[in-house]
Automatic annotation (TrEMBL):
Family: Belongs to the CdaR family.
Protein name per its UniProtKB record: Transcriptional regulator, Fis family protein
Domain (PucR C-terminal helix-turn-helix): residue spans on this chain: 319-376
PANTHER family documented for this protein: CARBOHYDRATE DIACID REGULATOR (PTHR33744), DNA-BINDING TRANSCRIPTIONAL ACTIVATOR ADER (PTHR33744:SF1)
Domain CdaR GGDEF-like span(s) in chain numbering: 166-268
UniProt domain RsbT co-antagonist protein RsbRD N-terminal: residue ranges: 10-148
Amino acid sequence: MGAALRVRLPELGVRMAERIRAEVESYADDALIPFASLRESCEGNADLLLGRFAQDAEADVGPAQRTGRLRAEQGVPLADTLHAYRVGFELLWSEMVEEARRHPEVTDAELVAGSSEIWALFGRYAEAVAAAYREASAELALQREARRSALAEALFTGALADRTTPWEAARQLGLPERGPYAVVAAAVPDPGQEPLPGIEAALRRSGVPSVWRLLPDQQIGLVSLGHRDAETVSLRALRRRRARVGVSPQFDSLRETPQALRFARLALAGPPGEGPGVTRFDDSPLAMLVAAAPAEASRLVEVALGPLLGLPEAERARLLQTLGHWFTAGGVAAGAAERLFVHPNTVRYRLRRIEELTGRPLTDPMALADLGAALYALQLLPS
């Protein structure tokens, strides 16, 4: 019976392919799965199955594994791939039953045994297809993630290969080709731990495309702000994570991504004394001045805070921390004391000490401006 059907393999391959195309939606697209390829696959699998019956040969799941890998590479859903196998097996079994009627020597008991065997083989083939499909899918996912990670790194560093433009990279990363964009930098609490878990998926659900990289000390992201509420949605999602986050100014050209990353990192550094929260670079024009003129800002630190910087480390850190918290608290000693877990009089004593050392009274607006700018510059500039 199996030998007789093997003579009709070309015909069976065509009929199987046609039946699968009619019943499985994904297989109807000739651009995705060419009919000739599908027919060849059907014919090869049918040949192996019939050989198993005709010659009692050992079942070979190799073609099933190759089909599983191929369908994963083509992007055919696994459920559709398994459905196609089921359709093929059903057609082949119906042909075997029809052929058996032409052979009186084939008993009903043999047909029942054959039915049991062919569906056991279907189980083996389906397992082989699914295992190969999942293995190939995992490999493809790793390749896509590696490619995505490399492209994101190239955008952040400005190191795109000559053959890849920023706009081509954007398309491959699922980002629009035009801005506005913003770069986000978040402090990593421990190496390998994301400070913004699930942020890309959360933004995508809100219609905001983005791409992210996890570095040893920071998680950085490039966010598209193309639709009207994108900035509001993004800031809300970032604040929910309870991490320390810096956000760059908006920019329109992807070629500005490295500079925007620098601004985001400056915003992340923020003024001393700040805890978790989102700091936008544009919220402090002073950050612009410090970033634009690091040499001059460094000189300002020396002039305004020089006497404090010459103190022993413990005292220097204590006074600078107090001054930072005092600025953050809006110049209210009680607010700074609450943040420092000390008495307000302790804060006032330290502030007087700062005035004595710097010669700049904290009641003088110009002196306050100098000290505040120097303190901010001290935090932002490299040591």
